Amino acid sequence: MASASDGGEDQATLANQQTNIDESTVKEPLDLVRLSLDERVYVKLRNDRELRGKLHSYDQHLNMLLGEVEEITTIREVDEETYEEIIKSNKRSVPYLFVRGDAVTLISPHEIRS
């Protein structure tokens, strides 16, 4: 007959196995990107560009193919008379977009709402 402490030990063993699985699935930085395949991601690019879309594929250079993309480009201008900074945002939707990896500064596996 099993004692009451056996159930607690089984749960602790299961928790340790789950922790080991999680640690073993992420060994390198690109493993986090791999876990985001077929999910919506937020990508920040150089020159004040942001992308939100579904990650279809990527490579070791962080070149990516995104689908159902919303691109936001932010333009900062200075008013010559008042010297105030004017910030304008342009949005566009793109069915598919190839992103060159050297332009990427941040990838978030969860879509960030602004």
TrEMBL record:
Occurrences of domain Sm (ranges): 28-113
Biased composition (Polar residues): 13-23
Disordered: annotated segments: 1-23
Highest taxon of source: Eukaryota
Function comment: Component of LSM protein complexes, which are involved in RNA processing. Component of the cytoplasmic LSM1-LSM7 complex which is involved in mRNA degradation by promoting decapping and leading to accurate 5'-3' mRNA decay. The cytoplasmic LSM1-LSM7 complex regulates developmental gene expression by the decapping of specific development-related transcripts. Component of the nuclear LSM2-LSM8 complex which is involved splicing nuclear mRNAs.
Sequence similarity: Belongs to the snRNP Sm proteins family.
Protein name per UniProt: U6 snRNA-associated Sm-like protein LSm3
Protein source organism: Bathycoccus prasinos
